# Entry
Amino acid sequence: MSKPEPVRRNPEKGYVAVLGWSLNAVEALDRFDRRYVVVAPDWAEEYCEKNDIPYVSWNFERLNDRSMEIAETLQKMGVDVAIPLYEETVEWAGAINSVLMGNPRLFGQAMLLRDKALMKRRAQLGGIRVGIFEEAHDKDDVIRFLKRVNQTLLKLDGDPNDPIHLKAFDKAGCLGHRVIRTPDEVDTIPDEEFPVLMESHLDGWEFAVEAWIFNGKIRFLNISEYVTLGYSVFVPATPELEKFRPQITQQIEKLIKAFEIDFGFIHPEYFVTSDGEMYFGEVAYRPPGFKVFELLERAYGFNAYQALVLAFDPKTTEEEIEAFFPREVDDARGHAGCFGVYPRRRVVSELSMPEETEDHDYFESHELTAPQEETVTKRTAFGTHWGLVYFFGDNPHQMRDLLKRQEELDFYV
Amino acid sequence: MKPSNSDSSGGNAALVKRLAALDDATQAMAETRDFGKHLKLRRVLDSLRRVMLQPGGFAAVEARAADLDEAGLFHGTDWATPEVLIPALSGNGLHSENADTVLIEAVSELRMLAIATGEYPHPMVSAEDARQFLTQVMATNLALLFTPPNEEERIKQGRMAQLIRNLFRHLGEKVGYESILDRLVEEIWRILRQRPIQVEQVQHLITQIAIYRSDPDIDLGSAGQGVDRLISSLFGTTEACREDPGVEVYRERLDAMDANALQYEAAGFARAMHDTGLVSPYHAVLLRFLLDESDYLLAEAMGLSSTGRDCMLRYHDLVHRLIEAAVHPQTAQSIYGLALLLDRGILYQPPVAPALWRQIALPLSPYAQERLTLAYGSTPAPGARLLSGVLSILGLPLGVGQGDNPTCQSARALSMWAYNDPDYLLQVLVWAARDDEVIMHFEGQPISSRESTGGVATTLPTDLDPVSLIAVPHLDRIYAEMGRRCADRQGDPHRWVNPEFHGWSSARGFRINVDVETGKLVELDEFLRHFYAAYHPHYNGDQPLIHPQPAGVAVTDSAARYIGWHAITILRVGLDPQDVMRLYFYNPNNDSGQDWGDGVVVSTAGHGERFGEGSLQFEQFASRLYIYHFDPLERGDPERVPAEEIDRIIGYIRRSWGADRLPAGELQASPEPSSGCPG
# Structure
C-alpha cells in the first residue's frame, strides 16, 4: 500500500468554503480535487495551522451587521460557494451565497429552510401533504392545541389522547423534540424552550431521504430506513420501503420545486401511512446526523462529503457528476446500519459490549466509551445517545431485525 | 491495497468476511492524511479484534502487518518506531485493561514476527533484531504460554485474556522455543508440581518442544536441562517405547516380553508418572495388557503404596473393570488418578465402591454425551471419558481447576467433595450426567438446577475436566439461585449459602470483616482474633482442622492492589519444615502460585505443601482473608492472640486491599466493585 499522494487541487474547478467544523468533512475534502477553506470558530485555528488545513476564523452567532464581512472575505479569496455543515450555519450559507452568486433569493430560501413553521407553510403551498401544525408561545397554546387536535380526531372525554409533537423552530433533528400526551406533561416544559412548533402525530412508517441536487435535478437519492426513530437507521432500505421509490422521487421533485432548490443537498423526513400516503415532516439543507454519510460510504463506496462539494460547486460538469454517483440500491455492496446506544439502567458503572453483538457476523465497530458518571440522566426529550454501534451485511431484513434486537441489550451495566 | 499472498483463511467463511472488513477499513485509513487517521482507527481496531478471534486470524494479520503499519495504525504512538520498543514493556500493553492497547500491542508483536520472517523488510529493524525482540517478549511473559487466565486477568481483560494466549501460541510456533527453553521448562515443572487434573496445555508445550528438539537444524546446546524427563514421560518413557513407535507397535512388543521385561516396563512408567504427574499413552496400553497378566505387575505399573496395593486386591474386580472401561491411550492421564485413588484408601469407605459400580454402568443423557463429545471428541465414548474424569478427580481432589470461568465456588465444591465426601460427589454427578438435573435444598426448600435461570457464568464452559464439565453448570445455577434467595437479607449471603451448598461439614459460624453496604472494613480486631482462636493451633487447643472449610479472600495483584473476591478452601494449618506456622489451602484457580503483593507470595512447593496446595504464613493469609466459617461452640483463646501480631496483619491490610476501606476518619471507602468470584 502506498502513502496517500498529496491531492492536486484543480484550479479549473470550484473553490468551496465549508461552514462549521467537522473533521470528517475536512478529512474528505482534503483528499478531493477542489480547493477548499474551512470557516470555523477560532478554537479550530491552532489545529488547522498545525495540520496545514486552509482556514478562516469566524464565530457563527446570529446574523448581524458584520455578516457581510465574511461574505466579502470569501469573495476576495475567490470562493465560489459556501456549504453549510450544521443547522446553525444554513442561514449563513444562504447569506454568503447570495453575495457570492449575486442571487439574493438564496438568502430567503435559507430562511425558509431554517424555520420549521415557515417551512411547513411553504410545503403546504407547494401542494405537499403535511400534518396539522401551529406555533406555540406559551403553555396555554400547547394545551389548547392538544385539545383541538384530539377534538378533530373525534375523541371523547376519557379516551386516551393522540400525542402531539413539540419541536424547536431552528434546531437539528431530535434536539428539543418532545412528545406530549396529557395537559399534565405540558408543565414539564421549561419556559425558555418557547416558542415552539407543535405538530399532530402521524402514525406511519417514518423514513428520511438524502438527495443530492444539481441543476435542479436529483442526482442521487438515498432512502434511510429507521428501525426505531432515534435509535437506529440503515441504508439502503428494505425492498418494502424501496418499492415506494417512484412516489418518493416525485415527492422530492415537488419539494425542489416548492423551495426552488437548484443545487446542493437536502435531507427531508417523511411518514408513509398504511395506505401509501406520504406526509412531509421537515427538511434540512445540510448533512444528516446519525452518521448516515459514513453508512453511505460503507454501503456504496463513495464519499458523501465529496458528493456534497460536487453538488454545490457551480463549476462541476454534468459528466463529472454523472460519473461520480453509483446507481441507487443496485450498486450497493451491502447494507450498512448503526444503532445509537442509550443506557437502559439508572445506574451504570462500566461499558460491557454484549457478546451477542460483538460476535454477530454483521457487527463492524463501535464508538462507545466508558461512562463518565454513574447515574444516567433521565431522558425527557429525545436525548443524545452515548455512542454508535456499526453493522454491515448482505440481508436488509436481517439488518433490520438485528438493529431492533439491540434495543433489548445492555451495553452499560 | 495489494491482495495478501499468504492468507491462511483456509475456507473459514467468517474469517474471509472479517478480513474483507479489515482490508476495507485499512484502505480507508491509508487514504487519509495524518490529521484524520484517528477517525478511521475505530473500525480498523474493531476489525482487527474480530479477525484475531478467528482461527487463522493471527497469520492473516501478520501477513497484513506491513499494510497496517503503512496505513498509519501506529501513527502518533510509541509503536510507530519499532526500533525503540522495549521488550520488557510489552507485557504492560498485553495485560492492559484497555482492549485497544492490547490490540495495538498484539499487532506490534505480529509486525515484529513479519519482520523476523522476512515477510516485511523494515528499514529500521533487521530480521535478527525482530526475532531477538520476540524471544524476549515471550521469555518475560511465559505464563501466557500455558496457563489459562487467572481471576485478575479475567476481570480486567475479559476475552482479550484468551486472545493474547492464542497470540503467544502463534508466536511460539513461528519463532521457536529454543531461546526460552530453560525458563519454559522450569515453569512447566512448577505447574506440574501442583498436579493439575488438566495437563493438555502442558502436554501441548512439551510436544512443541519435542518437535523442536527433533529438528536437526536447531541447535539447543545446553539449553533445556530437565526437558528430557518431561518429553520421555510422554513419548518414550521406557525401553520398549524409547523411539516413540506408536501404540500398535508397542502393543505387539508387549506380547513378546517375559515377566522380567514387563516388570521393567511397569516400574519405568510408574516412576515417570509419580515423578512428573504426566502419563504416557503407552502406559495405558501396558496397563490394559497387564489386566490379563498379573495383579502384582498391575500394582507395579501404578506404583502403588502398600495401602493402594491392599485396596486393589480387596476390590480386584472393580479395579479391573475401571481400567477396562476408563483407561485408553486418549485417557491415559486417568491412571495417575486411579493410582492415587487407591493409595488414598477411599474405597474402604462403604458407599464408594458401589457408587463406582453405578458410575461404570451409568447411562448418560444425550445432552451429557453431546457436551462430552464436543469437548473431548468421540474416542473413547463419552461414558468412558467421564469415568476417566471420575478417577482423576477422586485421585487428585486438589487438581480441579475452574478453567477460564468465573465459577470458583462450583470448582471449590467439587474439590471439597472429592476430598472429603466422595460418595456425595458421585451422587451429584449421577444426577447431572443421567438426569440433566441436580436438586439441592436450601433451608428446606428444593432448588432445581433445571428451573433456576442463570448462573454466575453466562456461557457454558468447555475448558474443564470431564466431571466439572458436566457438574459445574448445574452447581453454578444452584449456587446463584441460593444467593438470589438471600437477596433481601441483611449482610453477606455466604453466611447461609456456604453451609447449605457445601454440606453439613461447613461450619455454621460465620464472620466477615467487610460491611456489605459500605464496603468498609469492620470489627477487624475481633475478626482476626476469632480466626486465630478457630484455626491457629496455638490458640485453638492444638486442634488440627477436621473438615476443609470454605473461606473468602480478597485477591490482590503483585502491586497489592485489590482485584476481586475469591473463593478458596482452608485445608490445614501447621508448622512448615522451617518451623513457621503456615496455612495450607486449595485455590480453584488453575495456578495457585501467585504474587499478591507486599511480600505476600503464595507458595506451592518447598514449604511442606502437598500436591495442589498453596500456602502462606498464617498472618499473611489472615491479611487477605475476608470471610471464614467456624464452630461457635468451640471458643478457643481469642484474647491470648498478641496485639502486635494483630497490628502486623492490619498493616498488611492497610498496605493492600484495605487501603480505601479502613473505617471512617482514615480514608474514604470506594463503592463495592461487582466483580470477582466471592467466597
